[in-house]
Amino acid sequence: MKRRMRQIFGSDGRMLMVAMDHTAFLQDPVDGLVNYGKTISDSVAAGADAFLSPIGSAQRYDEEFGRSSVVVSVDTRAPFGAEAVARALAIGADGIKAMVYPFANEDWVNQSAALAAQASAVGLPYLAEPVPGGFSAADMRTPEIIAAGARVAAETGADMIKTFYTGDAKSMRKVVDYAGVPVIILGGHAKDTLEEFYGPIWDAINHAGVVGVAVGTNIWSSKNPGGVVRGLNAILHEGATVEQAVSAAK
């Protein structure tokens, strides 16, 4: 478990993860995901530490991932969880990730706990992504509920949490402190400018105790995915300012 966790994170304890598991549910093809292998290669060259991928693509693009870590995205629902853990191990994945919906239906929480136990038994790190109330519960995106959802997911046995950015570093720090395990933030919807995209990430990393990001749309919807990753790498691993990150992305 410890060895795999060190593999997922950089030597400084931070993680730049490129989220490419959207192919498991998007209804329309997107160029950056149609050209899956090239997006991976460009991101690896730009400094990506890890990738989030469905099991199918994790197998198919093994060479493109190279030495970068691969966390496979699976379904928590039984009986798929146990099967997914075995399959993740068989393809050499470094970790496993699943959604969990606190305060929506306790079955999801119980299933997350079962998946965490199955993964722990074989030393496979488990990344949980809590969405309080489910995706339709927009009223449950307050900092307090995000923090509570992160803790619930951590209490199921998750080794890491991927969650929403609360909007400011002070309230995000409460999420990090309450979770009790490493927290990474998701990138969210496509932003109009790199400054708008990088700004909250810089705050989260430098002032909230967040240890990394998992970015999908803002990378593979860009005409220059490698550039976007370079800017993120500069913020996470090189101590760059937002302005320096924007310059690195060009």
What's the helix and strand layout?
Layout: H1 2-8, E1 15-19, H2 31-34, H3 36-46, E2 50-54, H4 55-60, H5 62-65, E3 69-73, H6 80-90, E4 95-100, H7 106-121, E5 126-130, H8 143-155, E6 160-163, H9 169-179, E7 183-186, H10 194-207, E8 212-215, H11 217-220, H12 225-238, H13 242-249
How is this structure best described in words?
- Helix content is 49%, strand content 15%.
- It has helices spanning 2-8, 31-34, 36-46, 55-60, 62-65, 80-90, 106-121, 143-155, 169-179, 194-207, 217-220, 225-238, 242-249, and strands at 15-19, 50-54, 69-73, 95-100, 126-130, 160-163, 183-186, 212-215.
- It is of the alpha/beta class.
- It has an eight-stranded parallel β-barrel, surrounded by six helices.
- α10 (194-207) links the parallel β7 (183-186) and β8 (212-215).
- α3 runs parallel beside α12 (225-238) and α9 (169-179) packs across α10.
- It has 13 helices and eight strands.
- It comes from Terrimesophilobacter mesophilus.
- GO terms for molecular function: fructose-bisphosphate aldolase activity.
- This is Fructose-bisphosphate aldolase, class I.
